[in-house]
Design brief:
Number of domains: 1
Radius of gyration: 13 Å
Order of helices and strands: EHEHEEEEE
Strand content: 25-35%
Number of helices: 2
Distance between the termini: 17 Å
Helix content: 10-25%
């Protein structure tokens, strides 16, 4: 069990919304995460401050916050794979209410 978890404010709402929709709603899973097929490739172009932090905490779990589209936070697993820093959604369930997402 994790004793500490990094929490990051992720400003790029468009990128987050895209990975949320793809991971939880486009596959016909109706809000439930299925597998590790969807991920976000992190770079300094997408989110410069978050990228610097995530480079140091690879192979761990982080909480991502975005007050514009997320109610609370969303968990991701950060891994370095094939030379890329990838963020895989780790929250099992997602509920969309009034243009905001909640994760369980």
């Amino acid at each position: 069990m994790l004793k500490h978890e990094v929490k990051i404010e992720f400003q790029n709402s468009e990128v987050l919304k895209s990975i949320i929709e793809k991971s939880y709603f486009e596959e016909g899973t109706n809000g439930k995460l299925f597998g590790k097929s969807n991920y976000l490739v992190m770079s300094s172009d997408i989110e410069p401050e978050a990228f610097e932090i995530l480079k140091e905490v690879k192979n761990s779990t982080v909480k991502i916050c975005n007050q514009e589209i997320i109610d609370g936070s969303m968990r991701f697993i950060v891994e370095e794979t094939e030379g890329e820093l990838r963020m895989y959604p780790a929250s099992i369930y997602c509920v969309k209410e009034e243009d905001k997402y909640s994760f369980y």
